[in-house]
Amino acid sequence: MFPCTGFGYGLWWIFPLIMIGMMVFCFLMMRGRMGSMVCRPGFRKSGSHGEDASDSPLDILNKRYVRGEVNKEEYEEKKRVINGHN
């Protein structure tokens, strides 16, 4: 009656085990990734440019100038604005 007579279900029993294993693996990967994001020593860094959360605007501007992200004219103008001079 069945085309696979004599073989039973074969290896079909392994697929639910693979599915459960994949769910556990994904859970552990997500848990490990979130844990590393929270417990990482440099967690308070902004990440995009490496400024600390405690850096003042002038410190950030100085770092950007040193890296070449702003030219001298922009640097001087922004520095005057930060210091409150027109």
UniProtKB/TrEMBL annotation:
InterPro entries: SHOCT. Pfam families: SHOCT. It comes from the Bacteria. The chain crosses the membrane at residues 12-30. Keywords: Membrane, Transmembrane, Transmembrane helix. Residues 57-82 form the SHOCT domain. This is SHOCT domain-containing protein. It comes from Candidatus Sulfobium mesophilum. The lineage of its organism: Bacteria, Pseudomonadati, Nitrospirota, Nitrospiria, Nitrospirales.
